Sequence to fold (272 residues):
Amino acid sequence: MSGVMRFDKWENPTATKSVTIDQIAGGSGLVPIVPPIVTLGSGTSTVSASGMVTFSGANYVRLRDIFTSTYRNYLIIVTDINTSAGNSYAYLQLASGNSDNGTGYYTEAVFAQVGSSISTYYVNSGGAWDLGPTNAGNEYFGSSINIYSPGAATYTKATFQSNAGNGGVASVSGGLLHANTSAFTGLTLFAASNAAFSGKIQVYGYR
Amino acid sequence: MENETTQIVIEPISEQMITVSEEMSIIADERQAEWDAIAAAKLTAAAKLAKLGLTEEEVQALIGA
Fold:
């Protein structure tokens, strides 16, 4: 970073000066990403100027070309998920171009629900990451997923925390792994049995 | 304000995703059945323990409810 201003003491102190201050190199923070392409199996979708994707009546939502060389790690915020037909589950896959990868997903999770003991669940080498139960009521599902290096040619790891709405407030958290050394450029969100659902999804890059 | 640069595409769901979704649904259903069975067993155990005169806290401590 360059940030030194120097004035010659013999200069006219009343003359107009302009100073350019460099942006702070390597600054940190979350940067909203606007997906260039959103693919839906059905339904409708809008995308805000900051990249918030709002969808309705969709049986999947694919955000394409969001993982680039600009960022290495990403935060995905999923909110207001309502599986209109009833209780379901929210699943996530990684995609390359317009193709989802459907194998090698591991989910290791802890599930805590009001009035119940803490449970654990796992899916080993499944077809998608399992983010927990959803429902059709007002207790909308929400989840935050940190994805590490999805664009690198190495296994992709992630951690997630969901507030699942099935039967009341419920906490689901866990670790995710995709045992695949391909580099991925996007992701696809869908529900069990490809039930139509509505909600919002926003992607941020970690700078 | 909507973003006008994003392309919205509607494409039919793929056979691959249908297969994955069905497989994952089966896993979820099996998991739910397992949890329901555990919950039912705990209720049964709680009822038996209550007949022994244990307090609700003592029952919960024993069965991990």
Remarks:
- Helices of chain B lie at 15-51, 56-63.
- Strands of chain B lie at 7-10.
- The first strand of chain B starts at residue 7 and ends at 10.
- Chain B has two helices and one strand.
